[in-house]
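From the shared-data thread, chain only:
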Amino acid sequence: MTRRLVPMATIGLLASLAACAGGEPPATLTPTLAPAGEATSTPTVASSATAAPVATADEDAGVVVERGVAFATYNDVTLTLDLYVPADPKGAPIVVEPWEAFGDNISEAGAFAVIEQQGIPDPDDSADGEPPLWDEHGALIRAYAEATACKIRYARARAAELGSDDPIVVLGGFSAGAGPAAHVALFGDTLEERWDEFAATVGGPSRQVECVVATGSTHVDALVGANGTYDAFVPVIEGPFGRTYVLERAPELQPFLESAVSIDASLTVRLLSGTDDTVVPTALSTAFAEVLADAGYDVQVITYEGGHTSDPPDELSLQVFKEVLDL
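Structure, as tokens:
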């Protein structure tokens, strides 16, 4: 099985963080179906702005993968994902972005799984050599958040087509992917409204990403993050890119990002961390968990042996996801 330790759109961002601490929706790609783990041919472009109807696996056929599906556009770049459909999709829950490419394992357990393939391109550093997350009142942070929201909306819409109308939704993220995931999970259904209000107050940023599924809920029931850069995207703690760092660079942005914690404490949060991680130490996850616990969240920090380049073990990953999915 091929693994991606970090979502593609965040590889360059993670490198920058470590070094410093270091229009209209697009035409939709017609999904190509194949058993999980098998290569598929290059998708073709369909004229419709929403996903073309596709066949799904019957109960005995196992997991089916819809590959190269367009879910959003950003600066004329089409963003795509792979959707893993369980054998029995009716009423199935959804996992958006497990941090490694083990969507087949998640779907074999009975859930839809969404794995990003083409995300937001890696950003260039700011003129001062720092990652540009806080430039233009956080335009890039909003872009990452909106791309994540587009994945949630697309997965909800596709699941509804297959008989799962009000599923449990779990949002995952590894490393730099866990930061935006935390931001979106905490803001939930208020994400778009809150960003619009903030932009109106400070003069931007405007909407950055256009979703293929333009409306729908961005609420998630649980967040599962691993070795996450939570300090950069929800700067309620000190850290290499935490509260003080953001306040110095974007004093109007920091309180807005921090306000996500006060939205809805019903979110379940599980934070995994490698005990040998020197890039994003366990102490950052612990500090973030303490803030969430004080705000009333059901939150746990789960450690495993490994550094920042090590995936959480498959067995542990599935155990945590299955727990929050109630599978």
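The first strand starts at residue 29 and ends at 30.
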